[in-house]
Design a protein that fits this description.
With about 210 residues, the chain is α/β, with parallel strands linked by helices. The chain has two domains: about 110 residues, Rhodanese-like domain (Oxidized Rhodanese, domain 1, 3-Layer(aba) Sandwich), CATH 3.40.250.10; about 80 residues, no CATH class. It has six helices and 16 strands. β5, α4 and β6 form a beta-alpha-beta unit. The longest helix has 11 residues. The protein is globular and about 55 Å long. About 35% of the residues are buried. The structure holds iron/sulfur cluster (2 copies). The site of one iron/sulfur cluster has 14 residues, from β12. The site of one iron/sulfur cluster (SF4) has 14 residues, from β12.
């Protein structure tokens, strides 16, 4: 797997080369700051599906980075893209976003992608670590399949998540829901409520056969 230096990456971006820059950190770290123009594909269990949607042209150069040289996620992700997914030109930028920031190079913050995700309007699973006053504060939950349970649920009295943020649906594996489009939720918002011992998406609506 080839590496790319900060100087070479900057030169390629400046000349308008066909490069897809991928930040493999989680959505919260990406929203804090990232290399200008980068797309966010967190290195996790759905990385393979998501990265092929984010970078559909396997002939185009892709550059992956994470925080700094001590962060191994982008090197692992780059190896998967090159060896398992067949991308032709995969580069790893080992310095990551810290090296980019140290050099005063262009950064962005925020995430349009996060803002376009459906909000969790209400969750009555108050024993969840991410729940405060029936509001979810996980930045992006995963809804599991085939049953529409919240896979991010964590029973704990210690509270976590983003203090100011409102929870959103990051991914959904319930393909037989009418709101599911390519493993993402297309509802405007969802609600979550207990079902037996776990929380379920209460907005789930089964797809009838013959409908899309
Ligand atoms: S939606 Fe899921 S992660 Fe968020 S508070 Fe409810 S159970 Fe917890
Ligand atoms: S509404 Fe449907 S697609 Fe959206 S999170 Fe719930 S089960 Fe998944």
């Amino acid at each position: 797997m080839k590496e790319i230096s900060r100087e070479e990456l900057k030169a390629r971006l400046d000349e308008g080369a066909e490069v897809t820059v991928i930040d493999v950190l989680g959505p919260e770290a990406f929203a804090e700051y990232h290399i200008a123009g980068a797309v966010n594909v967190p290195f996790g269990h759905e990385f393979i599906e998501r990265v092929q949607k984010a970078a559909p042209d396997k002939a185009r150069t892709v550059v992956l980075y994470c925080t700094n040289v001590e962060c191994g996620a982008s090197a692992k992700a780059a190896r998967i893209m090159e060896e398992r997914l067949g991308y032709a030109d995969v580069r790893h930028f080992p310095g990551g976003k810290e090296a980019w920031r140290e050099a005063g190079l262009p950064l962005e913050s925020g995430s349009e992608h996060i803002e376009s995700m459906p909000e969790i309007a209400m969750c009555s699973m108050e024993e969840c670590a991410y729940n405060e006053k029936r509001h979810c504060h996980a930045l992006a939950i995963t809804v599991g399949g085939p049953h529409p349970r919240c896979d991010t649920f964590l029973r704990s009295i210690d509270k976590g998540g983003s203090a100011n943020g409102s929870g959103r649906v990051g991914a959904c594996k319930v393909v037989n829901c009418v709101h599911n489009r390519a493993l993402e939720c297309s509802a405007d918002a969802i609600t979550v409520s207990p079902h037996e011992t776990h929380p379920d998406c209460a907005t789930f609506a089964p797809r009838l056969s013959g409908t899309d």
